[in-house]
């Protein structure tokens, strides 16, 4: 049973070719949108198929936990309709192409690194926690609701020359890529809509270099400057790899922001499934999903995690063929928690839809704003117009660590709390006691001695990570406070806690850890205070000073080196949030309005260490 993907190529999508002579010219190939299909193999309910009939039969088939590719044979001329040979190929194991060393780009270490996400602790394994109790109903509701990701794809000049096909054939190739991408993302109930394509046939519209960071910065600027043309959720730039490995560079956790961009350097140009897998993995990180080293556990289930780390998979597996790529239940749970945090609200609108049809500011036929309308809803939208300046539209979500109005927050490692004894992380003042209280109002953080006693062991009641063979890895003296979360009851109850009675005396101090409660083997939350001047990140204790150095907002006065010229606060985006009475990108100008402040957050000056995921 085959059916056409409903939103894959909407009617209002813009498909263009850019050249020196003619600028942007529409690529009118409406019939190509009607030759894409999804379905399943007859009699195999757990199979899935993405096919194209645009030029022969091509596509991807997931069957019996294997991935197969269908391609028409090239340069074969047939005079009869019944004789058109095609290839049906099983996807071979090719992890070596993902695991070769490569040099980092600008502002990066000169030492080669494997093509891995540099922010991931190589010894850390994300462990899935079950959805329980009061969250279950909301979880099911979100899991059952469709999300729509509006995708823009830009193809640079070198890639077009490398493919060496006509614009129409290249467009068919991109449609096949996105059709297979849609097949993969359907597993988390996300549907892809290709709303914008640009083929840069003669000249690139941005500077594309071998430096991933610089190229990605240029891509974000381009997306910002052209955002009025098309409303996209994610933008990918496709180019050619200068090495024998495919590479991805993305801004992680950037969904629903202008930074939701990715760079793909490809080495395999024949079948779209390769580009689709890279896109799927990159979009996973843009959505906020982390690497998952669960393939040892998934071996018996005979599939590979889409969010798995390629080099680790290579070390753990030696079979000849790749198995099916799937989102694991653990990753699906993590994605649902992302939706609960309201960080992906842009995925809930239909493609190219500006407003809800029932809204009085909205034209119910086109789901576009009525003529003269500026907005349709929100705290700063009144009678279809934006309210005048001076009204707070977005209050800060955390009084200590988040900025009002803008989706920016104080840098990770900023001291917070009444006694400045905690730290900001991802816009939140993290408190381990509060984490325990959320689990049970009678809980609080256990004594430090209990953390040291359990997490330094590496057992079922205390650890910092799991290795490739799924063995528990003990914490070190530096990071033992970042391992398993251990809470205790405020009032000791006999017979509760760990499965053994543990009373200790150390330096004449008595400790009773028997009332500690290990809950679901939960790991300590990132941002939790550790040591004398550190906070936990990926189960490692990182100096707060090290985290603060990830951002830089020095003013024009280099001698003083005061952030934002001493009249503002640096944000996680390397921009300034100005104090009252000051404005400008570096807070160097006195405002005519003495109550003005919190100036607009301009384009961020990203550096490699502060938030780009490279492969």
Automatic annotation (TrEMBL):
Domain of life from the UniProt record = Eukaryota
**One function term, GO molecular function aspect:** metalloendopeptidase activity
Compartmental location: Membrane
Its cellular-component GO annotations read: membrane
Instruction: Give a yes or no for keyword Membrane in this entry.
Output: yes
Q: List the disulfide bonds.
A: 578-587
Coiled-coil ranges (or none): none
Question: This protein is called what?
Answer: ADAM CR and EGF 2 and Pep M12B propep and Disinte grin and Reprolysin domain containing protein
């Amino acid at each position: 049973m085959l059916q056409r993907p409903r939103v894959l190529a909407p009617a209002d999508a813009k498909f263009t070719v850019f050249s020196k002579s003619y600028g942007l010219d529409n690529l009118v190939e409406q019939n190509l949108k009607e030759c894409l299909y999804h379905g399943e193999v007859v009699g195999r309910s757990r199979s899935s198929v993405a096919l194209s009939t645009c030029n022969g039969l091509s596509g991807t088939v997931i069957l019996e936990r294997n991935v197969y590719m269908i391609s028409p044979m090239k340069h074969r001329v047939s005079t009869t309709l019944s004789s058109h040979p095609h290839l049906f190929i099983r996807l071979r194991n090719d992890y070596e192409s993902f695991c070769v060393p490569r040099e980092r780009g600008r502002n990066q270490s000169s030492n080669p690194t494997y093509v891995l996400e540099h922010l991931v602790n190589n010894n850390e394994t994300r462990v899935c926690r079950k959805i329980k109790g009061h969250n279950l109903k909301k979880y099911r509701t979100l899991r059952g609701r469709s999300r729509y990701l509006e995708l823009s794809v830009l193809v640079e000049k070198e890639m077009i020359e490398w493919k060496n096909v006509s614009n129409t054939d290249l467009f068919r190739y991109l449609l096949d890529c996105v059709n297979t991408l849609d097949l993969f993302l359907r597993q988390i109930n996300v549907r892809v809509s290709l709303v914008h394509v640009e083929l840069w046939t003669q000249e690139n519209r941005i500077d594309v270099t071998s430096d991933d960071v610089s190229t990605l910065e240029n891509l974000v600027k381009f997306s910002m400057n052209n955002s009025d043309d098309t409303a996209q959720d994610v933008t990918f730039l496709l180019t050619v790899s200068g090495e024998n490995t495919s590479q991805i560079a993305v801004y992680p956790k950037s969904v629903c922001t202008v930074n939701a961009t990715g760079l793909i350097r490809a080495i395999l140009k024949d079948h779209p499934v390769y580009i689709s897998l890279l896109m799927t993995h990159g979009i996973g990180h843009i959505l906020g999903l982390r690497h998952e080293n669960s393939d040892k556990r998934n071996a018996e289930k005979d599939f590979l995690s889409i969010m798995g780390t390629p080099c680790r998979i290579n070390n753990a597996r030696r079979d000849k063929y790749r198995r099916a790529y799937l989102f694991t239940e653990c990753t699906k749970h993590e994605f649902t928690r992302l939706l609960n945090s309201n960080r992906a609200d842009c995925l809930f609108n239909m493609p190219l839809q500006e407003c809800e049809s029932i809204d009085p500011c909205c034209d119910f036929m086109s789901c576009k704003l009525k003529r003269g309308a500026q907005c349709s809803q929100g705290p700063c939208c009144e009678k279809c117009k934006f309210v005048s300046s001076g009204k707070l539209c977005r209050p800060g979500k955390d009084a200590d660590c988040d900025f009002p109005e803008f989706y920016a927050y104080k840098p990770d490692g900023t001291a917070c709390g009444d006694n400045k004894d905690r730290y900001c992380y991802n816009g939140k003042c993290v408190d381990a006691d509060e984490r325990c209280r959320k689990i049970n109002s009678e809980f609080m953080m256990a004594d430090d001695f209990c953390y040291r006693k359990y997490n330094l062991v590496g057992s079922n009641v205390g650890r910092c990570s799991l290795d490739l063979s799924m063995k528990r890895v003990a914490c070190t003296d530096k990071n033992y406070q970042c391992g398993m979360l251990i809470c205790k009851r405020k009032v000791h109850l006999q017979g509760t806690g760990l499965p053994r009675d543990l009373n200790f005396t150390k330096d004449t101090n008595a400790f009773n850890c028997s009332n500690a409660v290990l809950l679901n083997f939960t790991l300590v939350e990132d941002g939790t205070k550790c040591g004398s001047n550190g906070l936990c990140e990926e189960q490692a204790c990182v100096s707060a000073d090290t985290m603060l150095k990830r951002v830089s907002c020095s003013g024009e006065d280099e001698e003083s080196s005061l952030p934002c010229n001493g009249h503002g606060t640096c944000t996680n985006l390397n921009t300034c949030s100005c104090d009252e009475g000051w404005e400008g990108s570096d807070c160097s100008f006195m405002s005519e309005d003495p109550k003005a402040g919190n100036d607009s957050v301009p384009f961020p000056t990203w550096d490699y260490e502060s938030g780009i995921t490279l492969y």
